[in-house]
Specification:
alpha/beta, Arc Repressor Mutant, subunit A, D-Maltodextrin-Binding Protein, domain 2, 3 domains, nine-stranded mixed β-sheet, two-stranded antiparallel sheet, 38% helix, 22% strand, LysR family transcriptional regulator, LysR-type_TF_proteobact-type, transcription, LysR_HTH_N
Length: 306
Amino acid sequence: MNTHPQFTWDDLQFFLAVARTGHLSAAARQLRTSHATVSRRIDRLEFTLKVKLFERNARGYILTPVGQRFVETAERIEGETERLQADISSGATAQRGVVRLSAPEGFSNFFFTERLPAFTQQCPAISLELVTIQQIMSLSRKEADVAVTLDPPKAGPYFSEKILDYSLHVYGARSYLAASRPIATRDDLLAHPFIGYIEDMIFNPGLDYLGDVHRGIKPAFQSSSIFAQLTATRSGLGLCVLPHFIASRYPELEIVLPQATELRRSYCLVCHRDLRDVPRIRSVINYIETTVRANAAAFVRNPRAD
């Protein structure tokens, strides 16, 4: 009689949760179980496999080299399991679970969250986690399942596609512009205070706008938050490069040199290739693609509408 313990798919779920979060407590919340249960499952899996998957230290659970390789195997099993569940379930049942979406602050706060009620009506069994912190989320470590980004990965096991372009312009509050020196050329911009991102915290080259407007511009006020930049601009602190789909909401803002200072950027949608066809991931991707493209006109300024 074989009494050698065998690991189960449940054990792999516990392993992946700890690998992705780095902490027992976070994994326990994700799996809706206890800290002790997660610890026990990880210990059992290591005992069964007779390998050390994690280094335990004050920072949490860090994958060993063996553990890092095992993540790839576990994720392939995860993907196949979810595809199998999709095949044997109805469409509504298959579209169930948690999806973590990483997206820029501007896109999230000024476009996507306003359209969440329609998403929840279409996919009521999907729980969406929206991450807007100013950093690049690691798709390889599954810190995010899907990402909207300005700079898709150039290599690796990822599915990536451009979903739309958007325009940006230099804006100022009408009250500020009325009380300040006139602006007729790009060089005139140098006489005005600018608002921008903190230079050494720009996590994406696509957000480095000021050099594209004029190489001589140095920001007088810097913030990692586009919302803070917007508020400072509306308050009359100075000029700022803002996306059209955000700034056009505020009639107190006016474009400066509309033809000479227009910039273009693109949003791309990225996910790990193994997750692309998982039903709940596919539902989120489809919704983002459909909603963005249905509202594409709002992202690019039409000069004839002025």
